[in-house]
Design a protein that fits this description.
Elements lengths: L1 E12 L2 E12 L3 E5 L6 H8 L7 E6 L2 E2 L4 H7 E4 L11 H11 L5 H14 L15 H12 L6 E5 L7 H17 L3 E6 L2 H7 L2 E6 L2 E6 L1 H9 L3 E6 L4 H8 L4 E7 L4 E6 L2 H14 L4 E7 L3 H11 L1
Parallel strand pairs: 3-8, 3-9, 6-7, 7-8
Antiparallel strand pairs: 1-2, 1-4, 4-5, 9-10, 11-13, 11-14, 12-13
Helix pairs in contact: 3-4, 3-5, 5-6, 8-11, 9-10
Length: about 300
Amino acid sequence: MSVIEVEGLTKSFGSLTAADHLSFEVEEGEVFGLLGPNGAGKTTTVRMLACLISASEGSARVGGYDIAQDSLRVREIVGILTENPSLYERLTAYENMDFFAEAYGLSDVSEKRNRIRELLQFFELWDRRNDKAATFSKGMKQKLAVARALVHKPPILFLDEPTSGLDPESSKEVRDLMERLSRREKHTILLCTHRLEDAEKLCSRVMIIDRGKSVIVGTPDELRDKIAGQPILEVTLKKLNQKIVEAVRELNHVLEVNVDDSASKLIVTLDDVQSVTPDVVKNIVHAGGMVLSVNTLRPSLEEAYLKLVKEG
């Protein structure tokens, strides 16, 4: 079931079109990535869907509500993390959470207290609840900002560059938290990022946008296949000889065999890697080969991204 439906969404600022007739859908419980360089229109798209700015053209429904006609209801069911989360640094972690819980209408004192405790424990910040946000590291501030976005139990999350400016360890912590949110609390997440590592590890599908326009929508594997076709099989052997090479070449579905004698490797191009790989290994073994490893080689998402944006 689609919980975000976007059709021809457009936003213009004078002569600049920041988002240009974008159309896509996000399924319930999915982590969907908006991927593109800085200035591509990702943040503008998220801000329209979160009803922070109005669209110039097109339409969208979030959680079944129209962003133009039901903006208040949309704001009630989404949590948003902006690129600059703007915590109140003179307040403690608990006070930040309490302030936003009140703003989101959590008036029952016991319910509010339990929700804040639950989130700060989930994000491993409970022991620092009485420390001012100004004393937190960037990674801890991002955790607190995500916790704040979740305080009213929204089913849909908009996360804009959640790992921006973080060191590798903090970035991994935030990615792990997003994965746990998707799996444990079943949130639908729209992840806005220019970091390919985030998209590759978290997103079931991505839409690449560039200069406001959609370049392609698909899974990371589909994007790779778009630029390279079928993946390539790499077989490493204990020892390589011509008999083994010919045993692989004689298979019907083998398109090309390249030999790396120095590393005792065969690089095999097949018309269907998944179904033909067992036959390749079988023929190698029958020819007396000892297989050390079998790997499927694909272009990286970075290679696919750069090529698709360049061609877009």
